[in-house]
Amino acid sequence: MTPVATAAASGxxxxxxxxxxxxxxxxxxAGLLVVVxxxxxxxxxxxxxxxxxxxxxxxxxxxxxxxxxxxxxxxxALVGGALxxxxxxxxxLLSNPLACPHxxxxxxxxxxxxxxxxxxxxxxxxxxxxxxxxxxxxxVPAAAFAGALxxxxxxxxxxxxxxxxxxxTLLLTGVVFNAFAAALITFINTLADFYRxxxxxxxxxxxxxxxxxxxxxxxxxxxxxxxxxxxxSARDLNALGLxxxxxxxxxxxVVRARRAVYVAVALLVAxxxxxxxxxxxxxxxVPHLVxxxxxxxxxxxxxxxMWAGAAFLVLADAAARTVLGATELPVGVITALCGGPFFLxxxxxxxxxxxxxxx
Amino acid sequence: MSxxxxxxxxxxxxxxRYGARAALVDVDARVxxxxxxxxxxxxxxxxxxxxxxxAGVRRPTGGDVxxxxxxxxAVSRRERxxxxxxxxQETHLAFPIRVRDLVLxxxxxxxxxxxxxxxEDLRAAHDAMERAEVLELxxxxxxxxxxxxxxxxxxxxxLAQDARILLLDEPTAFLDLKHEVVLLDLVRELCRTRRxxxxxxxxxxxxxxxYCDRLLLLDRGRAHATGPPDAVLTYxxxxxVYGTELYVAPNDVTGQRVVLPLSREHRERLARLxxx
Lengths: 359, 276
What we know:
The complex is a heterodimer.
Chain A: H1 3-9, H2 18-41, H3 49-54, H4 60-94, H5 106-122, H6 124-128, H7 136-161, H8 167-192, H9 195-198, H10 201-206, H11 213-231, H12 234-240, H13 244-249, H14 254-276, H15 282-294, H16 298-322, H17 331-351
Helix pairs in contact in A: 2-4, 2-16, 4-11, 4-14, 4-15, 4-16, 5-7, 5-8, 5-14, 7-8, 7-14, 11-14, 15-16, 16-17
Chain B: E1 9-18, E2 21-31, E3 36-40, H1 47-55, E4 62-67, E5 70-71, H2 77-83, E6 84-87, H3 99-105, H4 119-131, H5 147-160, E7 165-169, H6 177-193, E8 197-201, H7 205-211, E9 214-219, E10 222-227, H8 229-232, H9 235-242, E11 246-250, E12 257-261, H10 264-275
Parallel strand pairs in B: 3-8, 3-9, 6-7, 7-8
Antiparallel strand pairs in B: 1-2, 1-4, 4-5, 9-10, 11-12
Helix pairs in contact in B: 3-5, 4-5, 5-6
């Protein structure tokens, strides 16, 4: 008898198997492909992707589809996937349904150091040190990673020092830190007169900014690394749902698990923020929608949140490109408009004592 | 009394300090396979701290905890979790999950990095649910359960760990009379039939008298008395430790001690009787 047959005979059927995880990834990837194809069709100019595929390289339709829309859609998918995955991981780690990289200030920390590095890379001194120009590709995400990780540690220490981890203290810290980071970013921008060249909205409100194939590849790399790290932490995150002591009694090294999750989140945010700024609410909303479908098992929630986040941001970005006709809206405006009311709804439910109240 | 068997879990002169406050001072405790040790004492006497130390969730600041003769801190986390299972007073869940998934979490120390359960894990979880009499609840959400059902599910989670040592921290704190006995009957039976070593913190001294082979009475972090229930549940010891006048007498049904607190009215009446 196969193990599955014996299990069925004794009444318990496995919920998560390697095969099912592969099916989940495959199915979600197919779904995302459909969304991407839809997004290609959306834009101020109507194009036929198939005709564009066959057209010569300098054909305007081909340039629109493969030169403009597709790179942007791919980047939106990578950023959305990173934010959805990071949000799901943080909600599980902190047992807090209101957590996400943006709300906790982790995106703000990444943006702050990222922009410092980006401005720094344009200075003559950086060029002299070999850190300008192309090296910015490494320096900026590295700085964003450092910013994200430092903020995560700050959030953690605030959560710890208050003795009991109160969900609202954590969120307040994040909100205050975000406001602080946004103010500093504005200050630095004004000082450096960087404003004219790059646009402050790209960083503070969040918009998908295609900086080139290598930047997109870097985002893909951090997403894959983050997914691998978090997939290996899913079991620990499930156990952490029982609280720290519960997880420890199940053999989980809580300190190590927490460290792995924060590093993964910082990687994901560092891949996303330099090419999109601080896009809010994707990491907050998406895990909730995903849990409605797949339940609370983090082995399923994490990968599903990644794919759903990708699809969500591709759609939001398609809307940002088109709702005002030729004038483009930062995608962060769309996600905030969707996410703000959703956040209030969750907060109301939480204060009503449904979820995550302090113990 | 029979000769002491090999201790499954043993605390030797353990001490725990929270900053300047000593929560436990030089406490010895041992439990053998097939034996139930009850830990009793007033609020703040260190009962829960002792359970945490025995579970390896909290490292003592002094003394040693030995698991089968080996220092507990030298045992790997996974091995420890396969040997010792902990049932807390209350289980909070951040996100609603089904009973079967909560019980399967008990298999975490047996599964690999990605936490994929094999046939034997599913069988162990199934057996555990059967033994804790929660099989019919398998597909229900833990949120919907009553307190009694919930504690039996948590017990099933502990049993799924396949541990030889079961630690329970006031498992009946939020249960009514019937569910108290249902749960403790189950624990008693598991202790006897599967020769589990059980350490249980109990607030209710009458339950402690009925369900434990030996008792450890803690007083402000120190072991005040230890031994069979009749030797520990004495009028003098209990009144001294709990700091109030109590009624202690054998009861007709079980032959074990029954301990009742007395109201001020009754204490005064007793004092008047004494004076006469």
